[in-house]
């Protein structure tokens, strides 16, 4: 039997997932790769409660900074995908894009981030910009206790 026992060190638990802010300013792909080394993905604010939690987490770390999270349309313009491979349907799913966003400014903005404005909201930036800190998401730490009951 496997039990969820909590979050890895430094991560904060919310709604069954674990999140951690990282302060390095990196590209989207660098952030994605770093989260993978921690056994996770870039954070995915798929609902209002998680988005609100992540906004507060990022503001506690740096209210004036940009932070990548796990949503992009870099593989197919206009088709936004979460890091776990699920499609984000802008018209049917919950989202928090700022007014006029995503706008794919200059035809090169494919990765989502939280910006430094006072109110929560999403914006798109070029994935290759070394412009943002990031938030990783992982599942809880598991312990296999089946050997205890043998």
UniProtKB/TrEMBL annotation:
Residues 14-130 form the C-type lectin domain. Keywords: Disulfide bond. Pfam families: Lectin_C. InterPro entries: C-type_lectin-like, C-type_lectin-like/link_sf, C-type_lectin_CS, Ca-Dep_Lectins_ImmuneDev, CTDL_fold. It comes from the Eukaryota. SMART domains: CLECT. This is C-type lectin domain-containing protein. It comes from Branchiostoma floridae (Florida lancelet).
């Amino acid at each position: 039997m496997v039990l969820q026992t909590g979050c890895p060190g430094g991560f904060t638990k919310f709604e069954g997932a674990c999140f951690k802010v990282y302060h390095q300013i990196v590209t989207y792909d660098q952030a994605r790769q770093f989260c993978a080394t921690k056994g996770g993905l870039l954070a995915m604010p798929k609902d209002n409660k998680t988005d609100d939690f992540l906004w507060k987490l990022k503001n506690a770390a740096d209210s004036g900074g940009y932070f990548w999270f796990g949503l992009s349309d870099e593989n197919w313009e206009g088709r936004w995908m979460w890091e776990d491979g699920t499609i984000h349907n802008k018209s049917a799913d919950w989202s928090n894009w700022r007014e006029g966003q995503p706008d794919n400014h200059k035809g090169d903005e494919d990765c989502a981030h939280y910006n430094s404005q006072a109110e929560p909201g999403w914006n798109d930036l070029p994935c290759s910009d070394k412009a943002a800190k990031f938030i990783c998401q992982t599942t809880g730490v598991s312990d296999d206790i089946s050997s205890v009951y043998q």
